[in-house]
Write a structure and sequence with these properties.
By secondary structure, this protein is mostly helical. It is about 80% helix and about 0% strand.
Length: about 170
């Protein structure tokens, strides 16, 4: 058994779980405080639950593209130098998470903008507050569609920021 690889894998699992839980918690709290102060998951508003589930799934899809880049930074930091540079790990991880959070925000904002253009006269927030499940499903489907289309580009952007070591060209 390769102890270094095993330790690195455990570290990656722990980091992934912690980062995912924190980001999803912060996103839900922000969504709840900004748009749906009087709504909660305990009530009978199915539309709010569907909408919240879609937002959480969208964030999860984006995080699934970011976390491999964070683990690559950890791998590079632990294998390239004699001393692990924790500052660089935190710096790059924070940058990647910021990019992911901004991407999620931009995706959500663009979905609401697109939905407002497509359905003039329908206020999606009010419709969701009034338990209009069909509006919530349509907003979530649009949100997930755009997230699925954009997530590979986010992964490419973030992987371009990984400081891979220089390799010489022998040819």
């Amino acid at each position: 058994m390769n102890k270094q690889l095993f330790t690195l894998a455990l570290f990656e699992i722990i980091i992934s779980i912690i980062v995912s839980v924190v980001i999803i918690y912060l996103s839900y709290s922000l969504l709840h405080k900004l748009f749906f102060k009087k709504m909660d998951l305990k009530g009978g508003n199915t539309a709010f639950t569907v909408f919240t589930s879609g937002v959480v799934l969208s964030i999860g899809l984006i995080l699934s593209e970011i976390l491999p880049s964070i683990t690559n930074i950890v791998r590079l930091s632990t294998t390239q130098a004699d001393v692990v540079d924790y500052g660089a790990i935190v710096q790059y991880s924070g940058l990647y998470l910021l990019i992911g959070f901004l991407a999620a925000f931009i995706i959500n904002a663009s979905v609401f903008f697109l939905f407002s253009i497509l359905t003039r006269g329908v206020n999606e927030f009010e419709a969701i507050k009034e338990n209009n499940v069909s509006v919530a499903i349509l907003v979530v489907a649009t949100l997930l569609s755009i997230t699925l289309i954009v997530k590979e580009s986010i992964a490419l952007l973030i992987s371009s920021l990984i400081p891979y070591p220089e390799v010489s060209n022998f040819l």
